[in-house]
Amino acid sequence: MWVMLGISICAGSLFFHRLFHLHRAQIKSADFLNGIFTIWAKGNTVEAISQCEDTPGPVAQMVRVAILEQQHGPARVRQMMEEVGLAEIPRLERHLPMLLTLAQIAPLTGLLGTVMGMMTILQRIEVNAPTLYAGDLSGGLWEAMLTTAAGIVVAIPVYAGYNFLVNRVESIILDMERAFAEIMLRLPDLSIRRED
Questions:
Q1: What digits encode the pLDDT tens for the residues 101-118?
Q2: Cα separation of 78 and 57, whole Å?
Q3: Which residue, 191, 4, 20, 188, is CA-closest to 108?
Q4: What is the number of other CB atoms lying within 10 angstroms of the CB of residue 38?
Q5: How confident is the model at residue 160 (pLDDT cuts 50, 70, 90)?
Q6: Of 137, 148, 176, 189, which one has the fewest beta carbons inside 10 Å?
Q7: Running DSSP on this structure, what letter comes out for residue 70?
Q8: CA 67, CA 54: separation in Å to the nearest integer?
Q9: Residue 79, CB-side half-sphere exposure with 13 Å CA sphere
Q10: Burial (CB count within 10 angstroms: exposed 0-12, middle 13-18, buried 19+), residue 56
């Protein structure tokens, strides 16, 4: 049961840490991009870069790189944004495998407690045979059932939390892909306006 308590505390702290990080990383990308494109189209690249640096999350970092590299042409912008995206995805997914591992370990730990409870029952049968009372067996059965239930009770919310965080990561990655496509679409127009 102490192991189960440790697993639940560790999983809870990991979940809330990642939830806070992903909450900060996810912005209203459509509004952000419209604001940046308006500033950028007016030729205020310093202000656009400053706004990107003040905004957390991978979408802002991709836009920042696009602004900094746009004078080198669309191919360079594409390459640099892809590199930023590839660097940001592991940051978004950090500690998620550990959370999944804890969700998988919890019921196995409960199963281990069940086996140990059964071993306790068998030991008591061996010691107290041939006069065996129900009380001799109830302690081991209680231990076996309690650890199994605890393992399942811990695993269910941890696994649900893991899936929730994976969905948040996928949503942020989708925002990154949309931002990438929109920047590549608008880049020629913005470059022409700056030259004018």
A1: 999 988 888 888 888 888
A2: 18
A3: 4
A4: 11
A5: very high
A6: 189
A7: G
A8: 15
A9: 7
A10: middle
In angstroms, the CA 77 to CA 180 distance is 10
Q: Closest Cα partner for 151 from 98, 121, 119, 113?
A: 113
CA distance 18 to 31: 24
CB-based contact 22:168 (threshold 8 Å): yes
Alpha helices in the chain (DSSP H): 2-25, 29-41, 45-54, 58-69, 74-92, 96-128, 134-195
Q: What is the rounded distance in angstroms from the CA atom of residue 158 to the CA atom of residue 139?
A: 29
Confidence of residue 193 (pLDDT cuts 50, 70, 90): very low
Given a contact cutoff of 8 angstroms between Cβ atoms, the answer to whether 74 and 108 are in contact is no
CB atoms within 10 A of CB 130: 5
Distance CA 15, CA 9 (A): 10
User: How far is 95 from 3, CA to CA, in rounded Å?
Assistant: 20
Q: Chain centroid to CA 79: how far?
A: 26
**Cα distance between residue 44 and residue 194, in whole Å:** 10
Structure tokens at 183: 């920047």
Whether residue 148 contacts residue 114, with contact meaning beta carbons closer than 8 Å, is answered with yes
Rounded CA-CA distance 165/26 in Å is: 12
* Residues 121-146 pLDDT 10s: 787 777 777 776 767 677 677 777 88
